[in-house]
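call fold(seq) -> C-alpha cells
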Amino acid sequence: MPTRDPRVDAYIENAAEFAKPILNHIRKLVHSACPDVEETLKWGMPHFMRNGILCSMAAFKEHCALNFWKGDLIFADGKVSVTQDKGMGQFGRVSQLFELPTDDVMIGYIKEAARLNEAGITAAPRPRSKEKKELEVPDDLMAALKKNKKALTTFEKFSYSHKKDYVGWITEAKRAETRKKRIQTALEWLAKGKPRNWKHQ
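ret:
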C-alpha cells in the first residue's frame, strides 16, 4: 500500500510558492509510476522508497532539485540537464515545471529506478582520481593572504577540502562588498588557524 508522509505535506507547504507546483508534480508522478511507493524524510528532504531509495526532491530559495539515487545507472553520463553541475541531482536548478522532462519520460525514469531496486542492482563505486587536484585561488584572496603571513601559512597547510571551503564561500558572494567582507573574515579566521566551518565542529 502506498503511504504518504505528513512531513512531506508540511515540507511542500513550507516551500516557496514557485516550488509548490514542482514538488507536488514530482510527488504525483512518483506515485503514478510506482503505486506502492513509500514516502519519508531523510536529511531534511522528501525521499521516495521502494526496496530502497528511488529518488528525492528538495526546494531551495530559488530552485528545486530532483535526484535519482541510482542516476548513474539510469541516465547517460549520470545526468540529464546540461546545467546539472549547477545544482544537486540530475536535472540542474529547476525553477519552473517545463524545465523537467515530459511526464511519460519522467515516469519511465521512476519505473527504471524501481526496477533497479527490485533487482538488487547497485551503483558501482566511482573510481578515485589519482591526479592531485589543483585549486584556483582568486587573485583578490591570494593578494590578501600575502599581506597576512599567519593566514597564508594556515591556508597553505590546510587540506584541499578546507581550502576549497574558503574559496567557495568567497566566490559565491554576489556583491563586491560581501566578497570583501568575507575575505577579511577569512583572514581573521585563518590567522587563528580556523577552518571555514569551525563553528560547526
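The domain at 6-118 is CATH 3.90.1150.200 (Aspartate Aminotransferase, domain 1).
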